[in-house]
Specification:
alpha+beta
């Protein structure tokens, strides 16, 4: 393949009707920043990943939402891993991201291509009281809606997310917020998404992820936030590592997604799943 190609996939789903769509641009050299932003805006998905060069186990990757560049994106990385598997063969690839090196394994299974990434080292910190109060007000939650077993946290595994957990399924089912107000609040605090979660079983969560900083009301599957959440659960001692999680997302918006998370005793977080091709253009 000598020309640049733009692939469209849906990550964290076996069906084109589920998962989170992503663009994956593959070429010999990355376009200029304004060109990548224009392509991402034209594609219109929550993220488009740009990969170069065309060959080799080591590549550079950058991520653009329709509104801005982001430091790291999990679902677009899984989609990129599937593209690399199909175009260059199954195996391990080392991707250089703005957040650091990320390993991606691409495998072809009986049900299609799958990819798994290993995140950068996660970390977390406490949420400032003012930020927490403003975020809760934006999404219409009360402090009493929070699950005390999973305290609010700022969590990172390549990008920062505000983790808010509730034990109320009805509360998570209702999502309405002032787009520009929440966007401004998140930009002021360097947040990529809100990670709104409910623990439904010992190893299973459901999640919703407002993403106004990317120009998107809600993300149907957020691999970076899944890694950040898992790292927080481990490093805060809320779950004993090693452990595995399943995170279901997108079903509230009609695009069911399944994110598979593997959490070792230390180091980066493994996030994987299937991705299906939706189309490609030169």
């Amino acid at each position: 393949m000598s020309e640049s190609m733009l692939f469209r996939l849906s990550a964290f789903s076996a069906s084109p009707d589920g998962g989170n769509p992503a663009g994956v641009w593959l070429g010999e050299a990355l376009p200029a920043d304004d060109a990548m932003q224009a392509i991402a805006r034209r594609v219109g998905y929550s993220e488009t990943a740009f990969l170069a060069p065309l060959a080799g186990a080591q590549r550079t990757i950058r991520y653009f939402s329709p509104a801005a560049e982001v430091s790291f994106c999990g679902h677009a990385t899984v989609a990129a891993g599937v593209v690399l598997g199909r175009t260059s063969g199954a195996g391990r690839y080392r991707l250089s991201t703005a957040a650091g090196a990320v390993l991606v394994d691409a495998v072809e299974a009986a049900d299609g291509w799958r990819a798994s990434l290993r995140s950068v080292l996660p970390r977390h910190r406490a949420v400032p009281a003012e930020l927490l109060a403003q975020a809760l007000q934006c999404i219409g939650w009360q402090p009493s809606d929070l699950d005390s077993r999973i305290p609010p946290a700022l969590a990172y595994a390549g990008a920062w997310h505000l983790v808010l957990a509730t034990a109320d399924a009805g509360r998570l089912a209702r999502l309405d917020y002032p787009f520009e107000t929440l966007r401004a609040l998140m930009l002021a605090h360097g947040l990529t998404t809100l990670q709104l979660v409910r623990r439904v079983a010992p190893a299973q969560f459901e999640s919703r992820n407002p993403f106004p900083v990317g120009g998107v009301v809600e993300d149907p599957a957020t691999g970076a936030a899944a890694a950040a959440l898992a790292g927080y659960l481990r490093d805060a001692g809320l779950l004993d590592a090693p452990f595995a999680l399943q995170i279901r997302q997108g079903h509230h918006m009609g695009r069911p997604s399944l994110i598979e998370v593997g959490v070792p005793a230390e180091g980066g977080i493994a996030v994987g799943g299937q991705a299906v091709f939706l189309g490609e253009t030169t």
